[in-house]
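During the no-cost extension, the postdoctoral fellow (Dr. R.K.) reprocessed legacy sequence entries with the updated structure-token encoder. One reprocessed record is reproduced below for audit purposes.
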Amino acid sequence: EGAAANTASATNSSEAYGKPPNGTREALPQTLIEAPGFTLEQQWELDGLTNPQGIVQTAAGDYLIANSSGGRGEAGADGWLSKVSSSGEMLSERFATGMTAPGGMVIDRGVLYVADGDDIHMVDPDDGVLLRTISVPDADALTDIAALNATLYAIDSADATLYQIAGAEVFSWYQDKRFEGARTLTSTADALLVPNADNGQIYRVTEARAVSKAADAAEGINSVAEAPGGYLATAAPGKLIFVSQSAETETLLDTGSNGILQSHLHVFGDTVIALHPLPGAVTAWQIGPQKDVEID
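Re-encoded structure tokens follow.
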């Protein structure tokens, strides 16, 4: 419904869209995706966001989405978090403010941590109150945060460094040139996943700082998440791909020609959330069983 309300001028799904805030869009060209071993069925879409670069789910099941109207160092740059219901309804456009260019987020022991350039914000996820901002002078582009076994890690995409966060203390934990250009960070049961856009590889990092290649995905890979039988990932500009455990890669959806960029991707239970910085939107998919094949 949200997409329809904002696309009165759209005429077909192959239309080239303008840049925000005047660009328009239609629903994604597919609402059911058949992946190897499972399906993705579109549940809802929401427009009206501004360069969304991070999302987290609260204990109540709602989503907090990071928005920004400019990058760090830009005059008038402004960042904020929007609160969206589990069914895709905008509950509060500016739920939390006082940021510059917020990106990835994680909730740990009742506190929301937000990566924001050379800062990490601590926010109350219940009311949006900014509790504290931790300055990280050595960092330049903290873009994502993930939790692994009750320890928090942030990635600096500018200098290929993983930082560790302990309460209100942040320190450099591990630097590796294989992380250069990586903007997102995902945790599994026993490791961190770091996708490298330059070479298309997904790296696995353990708490012992052991780094190995988890998979070859695709050049331009933005974000990765575990999925049945492998990984779901996004790749620039508009690809949603599946990487199997046997390292086979399949493009499930490509919205680049529709002006819809695929950026951060997160899996919350059986729900897959994809963020689209252009045109400023979010899409929710539900993971389901593979459809039965009819034989004539």
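Residues 1-28 have pLDDT under 50 and may be disordered. The chain has one helix and 25 strands. The remaining legacy entries will be reprocessed before the final report is submitted.
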